[in-house]
Design a protein that fits this description.
Helix content of chain A: 25-40%
Order of helices and strands of chain A: EEEHEEEEHEHEEEHHHHEHEH
Largest interface: A-B, 45 and 45 residues
Number of helices of chain A: 9
Oligomer: homodimer
Largest sheet of chain A: 5 strands, mixed
Shape of chain A: globular
Strand order of the largest sheet of chain A: 3-2-1-4-8
Radius of gyration of chain A: 20 Å
Number of strands of chain A: 13
């Protein structure tokens, strides 16, 4: 088996890696995503950095495909479509898969970062052997990748799996970054955790270690650290967040009855502080037939390399498809 | 092509039919579902009625498979599992597919009625050619059948597609038949429509044609008829119901971005009275990327025969699978 190239295109850094068929990252490099004003300039810079790695690893003949995980990435079109947080792609459609494919001469697949994480879990992580599972990425926002019958769900237009934007508070919910109210992401992202903490600090006079901080500077990590020291208010913030996630998972089970929910990203670092309320929130809210059935797992991929592995897994999927069709 | 046998097992009537490959029902018969105290007695009675049809249509050699749509039907196990409304199956697991298969000597597949409706729409109805769609059955309850990547979604345990039991009112919602609060079914079923009408009659003094009726006797059909006569309160009941369904569809789109939502069952008889608020509820609540995309369709299957056609379609699916594997 040859290697594949993975590109994890993030809002700040774009990490490029060469990954072998066992999921070992053989080499990585990174560029700043937003130091370029056009998509062409970004691709030029990425290829300059990447070509050094490719030469190290036996040349392009030794690479069978490339996979890209990117915000607002559409698998069907291979393009980044109107990504609000990317200065060279916020205003249109950038056919990034085609641009890399033309320059490298190998097939390139692209999807959004949460879908890449799901394929990554199935290829290298805790979802190996599973046919029905949901990955929820709990970072700055809440993303999701859904695998059913062993296939990633892209939907009719490539945009399936926006579980961060299901409604969880039906009346007078928080305003979300998407402009609507009451979305899961407004509560259960890192940003949502910090907001819940700030609200509780402002609306109660409970003592808390967090009170020494400037409210605007509080992050989800600060809340987790305070909770781990036994801070009651901070523990309650994670209980609230996890319960809401578990309740949302009860609805997701009604949709597709998955074998497992897999949590990925920054908030999972809080460990049992968030995982226990998630399980309880599910048990308290799921339809009887689903109770006790799904597993609640934390990602099995190493944080630092997970995104590149996920992107590379999209490349492997493409490489395998091309082999089957030959 | 041979024929298939379809069995639509309902709470009151069980309709048996023989269906050819073009979707023509060649013969039907029916028995009362609950006139029997055991599953064995039900199967005996169904076979007595069915055998007459089978002989008329060229004997069992002319039947390639049987499909059954039944409440709490599990495709994986071929069994009806703890169906609360069936006197001979409320208390355990009835392996109905196996029971019919042993007696008839042909393969038998079983699923729940909403899944059968979805396969029916894909085989004979408005979903022909579609790969990603959701059927919502709006009857006494709310059921659903979900098709993604051209496959019915059964989930890990066979119980996927319980969209009647997603939460739509997050605080202090109506108690649902399942024992939980705020389920879609508690609002958007025929029962839910009647309940909304009763609540509005009791809580307002708006004039309404419905006030001449005994509140307990009001059905969704009475509300639809009043609305068609221009009764404002009745129109508002359908607006409330449709808006809530449309809002729920916005969440379902975030899950799987389907090409179409297809509505099936009694409430669809209200026509534009419910379909227009559904479309508006979706447009007002969907994430921008989904707006204007999915179609909102009423079932293309004739009401009287739809359920038997749906059940037969499960039989065709099985027959085709067996041919492929030969």
């Amino acid at each position: 088996m040859k290697n594949v190239i993975g590109l994890d295109l993030g809002g700040t850094n774009s990490v490029l890696g060469i990954v072998d068929s066992r999921g070992s990252i053989k080499a990585t490099t990174a560029i700043k995503t937003q130091s370029y004003t056009t998509a062409e300039a970004f691709v030029d810079a990425a290829l300059s950095a990447l070509n050094i790695l490719i030469e190290q690893e036996g040349g392009i003949a030794n690479m069978s495909a490339m996979g890209i995980g990117a915000p607002n990435g559409n698998y069907y079109s291979g393009a980044i479509e109107y990504a609000p947080n990317l200065c060279w792609a916020h205003n249109g459609v950038v056919p990034l898969a085609e641009m890399f494919s033309q320059r490298l001469g190998i097939p390139v697949a692209l999807t959004n970062d949460a879908n890449a994480a799901a394929i990554g879990e199935m290829t290298y992580g805790v979802a190996r052997g599973m046919k029905n599972f949901i990955v929820l990425t709990l970072g700055t926002g809440v993303g999701s990748g859904i695998v059913l019958n062993g296939q990633l769900i892209y939907g009719h237009d490539g945009f399936a799996g926006e579980l961060g934007h299901v409604n969880v508070v039906s009346h007078d919910g928080r305003v979300c970054g998407c402009g609507r109210q009451g979305c899961l992401e407004a509560y259960c992202s890192a940003t949502g955790v910090a907001r819940t903490a700030r609200e509780r600090l402002a609306n109660t006079d409970k003592p808390s270690l967090l009170r020494v901080m400037n409210a605007d500077d509080i992050t989800s990590l600060d809340v987790a650290m305070a909770a781990q020291k036994g801070d009651k208010l901070a523990v309650e913030v994670y209980e609230f967040t996890g319960t809401m996630l578990g309740k949302a998972c009860a609805d997701f089970a009604a949709f597709c009855s998955p074998e497992a929910f897999i949590f990925f990203g920054g908030l999972t670092k809080a460990g049992d502080l968030i995982m226990n309320p998630i399980k309880k929130g599910f048990a308290d809210n799921a339809l009887t037939i689903f109770k006790g059935k799904p597993k609640f797992l934390v990602s099995g991929l190493d944080g630092a390399s997970a995104a590149v592995l996920g992107a590379s897994a999209i490349g492997w999927e493409l490489a395998n498809k091309m082999m089957t069709h030959r």
